[in-house]
Each structure stands twice: as C-alpha cells, then as structure tokens.
Amino acid sequence: MTSSKYGAVAFGCALILGTSTTLSSKYMYSIMSVGLENEPRAFEKPLMQTFLMFVAMALALPVFLLYNQCLSSDKRQPVHLNQCIKLCIPAMADLISTALNCVGLMYVNVSFYQLARCSVIIYVASLKVIFLHFVMTGYMRMGIFINVIAIIIISASAIAGTENVANTIIGVSVMLLACLSTALQYVSEEYFMKKGSKSSGATEVSNPPMIVIGMEGIWGSLLMLLVVLPLAYAIPGGDNGHLEDFFDSFVMMQNSADL
Fold it and tell me: Angle at the Cα of 107 (from 106 to 112), degrees rounded to 5?
C-alpha cells in the first residue's frame, strides 16, 4: 500500500473515531449516577473527561517503546528527549481545546460541533502562514473563503433555531475558541514532528508520531493533576460547592457501569 493510500485510510479512521469520541462525550453528560451527595444526577464533568483523554493518550508511549524494543537495532526509531520536553506546548493547547469542547458540548448539539470543527482549517491555514511561512495557493484561499461562509451560516442557524439563545451563543463562542486552540496544537505538532529546513520553520530533529501523542498525554495529565483539577476544586461553583469536584467524579464513575 502506498503512502497516499495509508494517508487516506488514516484520515478515514480519524473521521470515524473522532465522531465516535464526540458522541460518547455527549452521551456521558446524560448518564445518571450517584456521587458524594448520594443523589442521582447527570455526569456533567468536562474537566474529568479531559483528564481521561490525556491518560488514554499517555498509553501510546509504553506501546511505542515496547514496539520499538521488538525491532532490530538498525530499525529502531530514536527518541529525542529535548523535543519531548518542548511537547508541553501542544499539550497545553490540546488541554485548552479539549476542555473548551467539553464545555461547549453542554450548550450545543453534536451536529453543530462536527460542522464547527471546519473552522480549524481557517485557523490552521492562518497560523501556518504566520509562523511556518506557508504559501497558500489560489484554490486553498477559495476553500478557506467557502469555510468562512459555512461557519457563519451554521452558527447563525444554531442560534436562530434554539429557544435558549444566550446558552447557544456561549456554546458557539466556546466551540470556535476551542477550534483556535486545536489549530495551535496542530501547527505546533507539525513544527515538532516535521523535518525540513530552518527557513521553513520546521525542526531538524523529529520524533515519531506515537512519541508526540504519548508525551502530550503525559504533559496533559500532569497539567490536569497539578494545576487544572486542583484549581477547579478551589474555585466556588455548582458542583458540590466547587467549579468541578474531582472526588465526586471518581465516586460517580465507581457507581456507574456505563461510565
């Protein structure tokens, strides 16, 4: 199978799995479980979902290291630790985008979320032109223009087709900000993965994709455990008096087989 066919298969799998992830995230919000208050309520825990995503991403690292050890010494892929440290940058962007997406899903439906993700194309193209000195062709500019029109239309239809306009506006705004953060993640990942000339903005040393994913998962998990979740617990809110109760989340997951 040629590299182009591999790319097409990978893109198709990403599309299917990405949609499945979104649907499962939305479904989790509707699952009822008993927490610390001993009363059943919906599992509306966007930060916990974000943390679990990073833990899952971190599992890619031991899988790659085990696979790499099984290869002959001449075929093993090198791991560059200095680049692994710098992967905290896309990890932070991923953390922000995932948290915003989880929050946005509480206010808008899945269909809008999937369509709104097209705005990532606009953001990525703009950021690549600014930071990676990417030169767009005429048809690329036309595609971006079409995407801009599409985003305006679906955002307007989402706001017009709801009874709670204020919540929908919040959801739409949060989703578009999440897409901007996702674009920052993609561009920074390309910077750390792609080999090329320094003039093009690419690094001379690259890491395998599984290392990039795994290190992002580790950095993201650490940021969630050390910064985000404690901060959310300290800030007053509607989740047992906290913005999000980390301990209540674990109790709810223990009491629900679906979760």
Answer: 105
